[in-house]
């Protein structure tokens, strides 16, 4: 599952899913199912480390002084993107003006075998959302198919 901002940065921050697990995620995840229009405003803030240095909370509590991410921002469009298993490579993209350092699946130079929109962006989203380049990819593939120029992978919309 990727967002347009993930595609622009060249990294899918969500883990790859088996097709049946992806189907379940589209039904059960409130973000993917479109039941919420904003990300959780507090993120992981309620999870804090205790004062005991031997406590195991260090394994589940978020690191201290983390860079803010999506907290409270409007939901972007989400897409289901299929890639070949041979193209599945985990890497880290450094922090830049578009976001904090992120580890995920490399997308740069990786052909998308299938691309399907899962949800639209939140209604009345502000202009801070990135261009939805993935919608343009789907439109271009549809055009190529219509013109009989497409020999590539299947694409659903």
Automatic annotation (TrEMBL):
<protein>
    <submittedName>
        <fullName>Uncharacterized protein</fullName>
    </submittedName>
</protein>
């Amino acid at each position: 599952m990727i967002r347009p901002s993930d595609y622009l940065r060249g990294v899918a921050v969500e883990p790859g899913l088996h097709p049946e697990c992806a189907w379940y995620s589209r039904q059960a995840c409130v973000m993917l199912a479109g039941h919420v229009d904003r990300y959780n405003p507090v993120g992981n803030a309620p999870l804090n480390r205790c004062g005991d240095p031997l406590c195991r909370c260090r394994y589940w509590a978020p690191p201290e002084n983390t860079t803010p991410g999506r907290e409270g921002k409007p939901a972007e469009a989400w897409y289901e993107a299929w890639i070949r298993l041979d193209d599945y490579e985990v890497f880290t993209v450094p922090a830049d003006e578009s976001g904090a350092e992120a580890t995920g699946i490399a997308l740069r130079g990786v052909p998308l075998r299938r691309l399907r929109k899962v949800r639209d962006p939140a209604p009345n989203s502000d202009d801070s959302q990135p261009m939805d380049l993935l919608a343009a990819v789907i439109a271009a593939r549809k055009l190529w198919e219509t013109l009989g120029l497409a020999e590539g992978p299947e694409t659903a919309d």
